[in-house]
Automatic annotation (TrEMBL), chain A:
EC number from the UniProt entry: 3.1.1.61
GO molecular function: phosphorelay response regulator activity; protein-glutamate methylesterase activity
Keyword terms of this UniProt record: Chemotaxis, Hydrolase
CDD domains: CheB
Protein name per its UniProtKB record: protein-glutamate methylesterase
Transmembrane feature ranges: none
Reactions the enzyme catalyzes: [protein]-L-glutamate 5-O-methyl ester + H2O = L-glutamyl-[protein] + methanol + H(+)
From TrEMBL, chain B:
Domain CheR-type methyltransferase intervals: 1-250
SMART domains cross-referenced by the UniProt entry: MeTrc
Organism of provenance: Allorhodopirellula solitaria
Keyword line: Methyltransferase, Transferase
Protein name: Chemotaxis protein methyltransferase Cher2
GO biological processes: methylation
Gene Ontology MF terms: protein-glutamate O-methyltransferase activity
Top-level taxonomic group: Bacteria
Leading EC class: transferase
InterPro entries with a match to the protein in the record: Bact_Chemotaxis_MeTrfase, CheR_C, CheR_MeTrfase, CheR_N, SAM-dependent_MTases_sf
Length: 188, 275
């Protein structure tokens, strides 16, 4: 029997809002492992992505503050202009280090630190995007024994990011957004 | 790499640095420390943290450069303009009532925040009655802060930030451009004291009216955050001001009762009077 992930980390870039909305709106209420999401946003700091997504999602959506503890059934969103990392005690820490893959927040930064703390108890998901952020981090998740899902590139608004992830992670499962949502409901 | 081994090595390295050089990173947030150490391993051409530890202990020239990896020095002039706008419009009117003022910028790194503050105080006509303490644990960073020299390609962003913060002068009044760098005017340093101070081990050194410590506490574990906020509390008089980074808060701190919200959106607090 496979082990149930205790945390889900998800990354998306161009086309992110539609894709994430579709996944979150399909989720059942307030159950399941916490989901931590990095979305690349143009550095418009007053975009209220959390509010926008909350309208379509029955789970509480929280913009991460420093040392935020993770709670089951909650969705966490990286704030603009900060990296999000997982601490040893599984709380979320922020960092304003240099951008990675031209991005802050960076998906690789979240995935790598989450893999380090949760090892096989983690599920990583890469969605639509026009760059390669996340491909390295998703590899790391698989290497520590975690699970990996990638959005079907032909369905993605921008297929570069799923393609890059498939290239580094041929052993990840490729799914449509609907299937990802279903997977989260049934398996997590 | 075996994760447990990696964690053991990290602890040993931090202990070694502490015992030999008295720099205390033991309560720094480990997630981002690990990331930056991975970069340091590449730079020093070491395969493991243990190798780096050997080098740090036996070659004293390693540490100053390693410090620049262990501490984060990324900032901008007037980073988060709304914060500086709130200082300008809401905090300055209170500070104006004091005949002399002290401002402390802990973890000043390369000095972007302290120059922003001096410019803001000059625009408000308060510079001449204020002393600015700019402190950091990293001697190299303090030197760079004192030099006040920033890459010219960052100045466009600084200028836009300054404008959005409600700046009443032109930022170009404060620097000269030469050889791809903007060098900030010497006169801005007249009232600044650059000094070595460690939030993990040093004590209160002055009573100050405003502390601006932004994006420093995020690199600390909760225990060390508590120590630092305790120091801030003991450095402020009743009603003194504390400004934190946009995503930092004293909400999770044991000193939360020592402060009252002043501008919650911009993370500006005031010291509560003792009962």
């Amino acid at each position: 029997m496979s082990i149930k992930p205790e945390v889900v980390v998800m990354g998306a870039s161009a086309g992110a809002i539609e894709a994430i909305t579709e996944i979150l709106s399909g989720l059942r209420e307030r159950t399941g492992a916490p989901i931590v999401i990095v979305v690349h946003m143009p550095s418009a700091k007053d975009t209220h992505l959390a509010t926008l997504l909350q309208n379509r999602c029955s789970r509480p959506i929280i913009e991460v503050e420093d040392k935020q503890p993770l709670e089951r059934g909650h969705v966490y969103l990286a704030p603009p202009d900060y990296h999000v990392l997982v601490e040893d005690d599984t709380s979320l820490a922020l960092s304003s280090e240099e951008p990675v893959n031209y991005s802050r927040p960076s998906i690789d930064v979240l995935f790598e630190s989450a893999a380090d703390v949760f090892s096989q108890l983690i599920l990583g998901i890469i969605l639509t995007g026009a760059n390669q952020d996340g491909a390295k981090g998703l590899r790391e998740i698989l290497d520590v024994g975690g699970k990996a899902l990638i959005q079907e590139p032909t369905e993605a608004h921008c297929r570069a990011m799923p393609d890059a992830a498939i290239a580094t992670c041929p052993d990840a499962r490729v799914m449509s957004l609907r299937e990802i949502s279903q997977y989260l409901n049934e398996r997590i | 790499m075996n994760k447990k081994t990696h964690d053991i090595e990290l602890r040993l390295l931090l202990e070694a640095i502490y015992l030999k050089y008295h720099y205390d990173f033991r309560d720094y947030s480990s997630a981002s420390l690990k990331r930056r150490l991975a970069l340091a391993l590449e730079r020093f051409d070491c395969e493991t943290i243990s190798q780096l530890q050997n080098r740090v202990l036996h070659n004293e020239e390693t540490l100053p450069e390693l410090l620049s990896y262990l501490t984060v020095q990324v900032s901008e002039l007037f980073r988060d303009p709304p914060y500086f706008k709130a200082l300008r419009e809401e905090v300055i009117p209170h500070l104006r009532t004091y005949p002399s003022l002290k401002v402390w910028i802990p973890g000043c790194a390369n000095g972007e925040e302290v120059y922003s503050m001096v410019i803001l105080f000059r625009e408000a006509g308060l510079e001449d009655r204020t002393i600015f303490y700019a402190t950091d644990i990293n001697a190299e960073a303090l030197k760079r802060a004192e030099a006040g020299r920033y890459s010219l390609d960052r100045v466009g962003l600084f200028t836009e930030n300054h404008r959005q913060s409600g700046g009443t002068t032109s930022l170009s009044d404060y620097y000269t451009a030469a050889y791809g760098a903007a060098i900030f005017d010497k006169s801005l340093k007249k009232r600044i004291v650059f000094s070595d101070h460690c939030l993990a081990s040093d004590a209160v050194f002055a009573e100050v009216h405003l502390i601006s410590c932004r994006n420093v506490l995020i690199y600390f574990r909760k225990e060390l955050q508590d120590r630092a906020i305790g120091l801030f509390r003991n450095s402020l008089p009743r009603n003194g001001f504390l400004g934190l980074g946009a995503k930092e808060s004293i909400r999770f701190s044991s000193h939360v009762g020592g402060f009252v919200d002043f501008n919650p959106t911009e993370r500006i607090y005031r010291r509560r009077g003792d009962l």
